[in-house]
Amino acid sequence: MNLAGITHRPLSEQAYMVAEDKLVLSLKAAKGDLKKASLFYGDRVDREKQIRVTEVEMELTGSDQIYDYFEAEVKSDYTRICYYFSLEDYFGIKLNYSEHGFTDNTDVDRTEFFQYPYLRREDMITMPEWTKDMVMYHIFPDSFADGHRAISGQGNDIEQDGIHFRSNLGGKISGIVDNLDYISDLGANCIYINPIFKANSYHKYDTVDYFDIDPCFGTLDEFKALVKVCHERGIKVILDGVFNHCGPDFFAFKDVLEKGENSRYVDWFYKLRFPIERYPYPNYEAFAYVSDMPKLNTGNPEVCKYCCDVGRFWIRECGIDGWRMDVANEIDHEFFRQFKRAIREEKRDSFLIGEIWEDSTAWLLGDQFDSTMNYTFTNICRDFFAEEKITPSKFDERIQHMLHRYPRQVTLAQMNFLDTHDIGRFLSFCNGDESRLKMAFAFMMCAPGIPSVFYGDEKGITGLEECEYRKPMPWNETNSLEDFYKYWISLRKSSKALTRGSYRTELVDDKKRIYVFSREYENERKTIIINGSDSEMCLYFGENVNCAPRSVTIL
């Protein structure tokens, strides 16, 4: 038995609550090493001298390149649980595994079992109920619309109080309002909008005023009207919050530039150096060495309170439903704890997403983010569907690794997407082959997580450079993609198995490029067949199923 490959960490993604009386407990073992794994659990304060334990056989829920994942769900009246694992390999070796380590007998004191000290409801990770059926439509406001099915493509330069506010393509808040029928018809029930606050650049990531709408986009009253109409249509609204840095015309940074070390706002910024040098590169901390984006010191209580007040304001005054936090991995963790408490006080079911491109475990323990942007999902889909660089077995290994890195509730709430405002369009990585995009999109609609559509993907937008993938919405173009997107979005929203269910790999065939998995929730089960080959395939799943080339079939 490969003991070095066996791991379990209490109070982590391997031991967490899914209900007040229900725990999920799992462990990792070297791939192919264990024949069987069982869980033994009991009341850690059992009045009997010899603790009474219950056995639950664990299920092999998936395998990645290195590990097998075993999982058991425990429903118990105990509020304090201790437990250990019984393991058997293919050579007949049997060992028990606990906090004590590995042993071939059960004569271990209960204090040396693994412990889940108390099943407290406050420690359970919960998601707003509305997020469970969510399909997001991601809007880059400058590029989307300034009228009904229209965008001028003409930017603006508006001066107010000596500050210039610029746009590139002319998109407006009113343009989003005018096209909510289009978004509803597509099937999306949430819009995520990139920054709309006063800022110098067209992308609006260099904020000037966090409490007002950029004049190139419209007015505060127009935004309030947008949220009101969205809610009437059953559409939630999530805004982009840029609190890692601000813009050069933000009042506090202007004060520092004017007064230097004598400014009362010196500690509002991270590692300022005097005299301040802005060009060619800043001698102060900034976003990616961009001098016009000085880094805010969110560890300063004044700054933290200011940002939390911003978070509260847009929920209280406009009724938004959540925030996506920009450059979240460069901001201190305590800031997000306070920000989440602030917005939940304003709206109990508000939703908080972080922009983190890598593993986000440290942010997803329940006290900070509800979800993060799942770039791992994007990369896997690009490698398998778009560029066909990996086999179905490698695809499955990477998907399983992704699915097992967070607690179940978090995995189901991850923001999945094929592209965003920061990366090239997925169709370009497919070399324009719409069949590859369709397979990837259908998979996203069937996979665990919250699917997100970047504006215009459904119209076949391409581009690998910023000016291309942020191009104007091609309102006058039509193709088969729109109907395809509507069909799969509708299919997902009609199925609890696809929005809430477990994920199990059913068949992997590298030679035929076939991948089959299932989603199951309560009494509903969906089987999804991906035929990535150029040939029609006939497979048997209780009945003969003909699968067209480069297609996804759902049973």
Mean pLDDT: 96
CATH superfamily of the domain at 3-121: Immunoglobulins
Helix content: 10-25%
The portion of residues forming beta strands comes to: 25-35%
Strand elements, count: 28
CATH architecture of the domain at 3-121: Sandwich
Q: Report the CATH C-level class of the domain at 3-121.
A: Mainly Beta
Instruction: Give a quick account of the main beta sheet: strands, pairing sense, barrel closure.
Output: 8 strands, parallel
Structural class estimated from helices and strands: alpha/beta
Based on CA atoms alone, the radius of gyration comes out at 26 Å
Could you give the distance between the termini? 39 Å
**Count of individual helical segments:** 15
Instruction: Give, in spatial order, the strands making up the sheet with the most strands.
Output: 20-19-18-17-14-11-22-21
Low-confidence stretches: none
Looking at CATH, which topology of the domain at 3-121 would you report? Immunoglobulin-like
Described by the principal axes of the CA atoms, the overall outline is: globular
